[in-house]
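Following up on my earlier message about zinc ion. Here are the inputs again, as you asked, copied directly from the submission form:
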Amino acid sequence: MDFQTSFFTYCPNCQSTDFSFKNVTKFQCNACAFEYYHNIAAAVAVVFTFEDKILFTVRNENPDIGMLDLPGGFIDPKETAEEAACREIKEELDLDILPTSLNYITTSPNEYLYKNVPYRTMDLFYECPLTNDKLSIKAKTEIKDLVWIKRNEIDLTKIGFVSIRKVIGEFYLG
Ligand SMILES: [Zn+2]
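Thanks, got it. Here's what our run produced:
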């Protein structure tokens, strides 16, 4: 499975195999005219900073198990991006932050293969300066470890997602 391969074997509406799924974005069944748009999903990532260091999480599940990641996740329906960031930070690190403490950085597209379904996301990045580096993991099934890395010691090849690698590379390398 890759990001150009259909993950449907049959039309979900009529079970026909006569369909197109152009760029794995627009599914169109030739037998029953069913259409489905596999649109991108929105996600948030938070860059916590303390002195000259940045907080990374170590992923404890696929995709990219063992690779560096940032706290964050998918935005739920009806949430703002800032609300999603605060919720995810509470869920992952048991840390309360305010939407006003989030400084918008940029956006970057990502690909996220989960259980053989290729999701494409638009990741929204925020920076959040902290006054200390004492954090702990709450979501232990998702996060294996937390690591603070000095800007001039970041190894981009250890970062899993292309969106995070790009933003850290552009905005944070010492
Ligand atoms: Zn059909």
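One observation from looking it over: The chain is about 15% helix and 40% strand. Hope that helps, and feel free to reply on this thread.
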